[in-house]
Amino acid sequence: MTSVNELLHMATLLDPSLPRQPIDHRPRSYTSAPGSTYLLPADDSERIRLDVQHTSITRGFNDKLVLSPVTIQAGDKVLDSGAGSCSWTLDFADKVPSSVDLYAADVETKLFPAHPPDNIKLFRASVTDLPDEWTGSFQLTHQRLLMSALTSKEWPIALNELFRVTKPGGWVELCEASPELDCPAHHCHKALQAPELAYTASDHELQVATLLPDWLREARFTDVHSVEGKYPVGKWAGADGEHARDGLVGFLRGLKTPILNRGGLGFASTEEEYDAIIDDFERLCDETPNTFGKNYTIYARKPDC
């Protein structure tokens, strides 16, 4: 016989407008920035995950931090918008002259490095409302993996802000993840349903990587290019695979609170069930050769006038 709780759970799946009772779980620290819609935590574990993830993304693009044909010279300014832990900014600082000013901006500063190099300037700023004085300032504007940060209504605003702060003739470079996993054994694993459920419930767009080229053209950028970067996921691929696994699995674990706070969204009815699903996915990644994730770097130029 179906219980009352089971009937209520089935009803909430059929009608998302019905209230869902949050499921008790061990909470992590999330951003306290007013108006932020960021779905992932902002704690020490997330800082470590972002740094590890940076390594995997860079490997997937043949160890290149920049794919656009931008030329960075002494005195230029570069912006990392939505910088997170500043892993990209710190790495890029080693590749350019110290006279290049690197700006890192994020609505949450808890993940910023405590002692950045002198040519890195840290700012609390939203990607949808960058400082007015930055208009036309940056030869390169970089932004990565904000699919968990921006709602579908916020993306056009953020891209228009990037257009505004980029110098005429300068380049914008964005990196976003594909929600699909290339794997012969578990591309339909239940764990991979978690992002779709969490994003849909909060009006975030999961297919950003495929939509960005058109969005950039709508924001008046030209010379738009999209480049795929694949990376192995799991212990079977050695250290690189373990780094990628930790980044991906950590992302899925970070979605626990957004999902359980909404009653589980049909994904899990307890914290233990949620953890078991992700644990099983992690095991399969480690044990299944030829498991690959994909990121896309989309770059474009701001017209000269």
TrEMBL record:
Membrane-spanning segments: none
Report the residue ranges that make up the Methyltransferase domain in this protein.
Answer: 78-170
A GO molecular function annotation here is: methyltransferase activity
Name the keywords, alphabetized. Answer: Methyltransferase, S-adenosyl-L-methionine, Transferase
Concerning Gene3D superfamilies, the annotation shows: Vaccinia Virus protein VP39 (3.40.50.150)
Q: What GO terms describe the biological role, i.e. biological process, of this protein?
A: methylation
Q: What is this protein called?
A: Methyltransferase domain-containing protein
State the organism named in the record: Leucocoprinus leucothites
Lineage, broadest ranks: Eukaryota, Fungi, Dikarya, Basidiomycota, Agaricomycotina
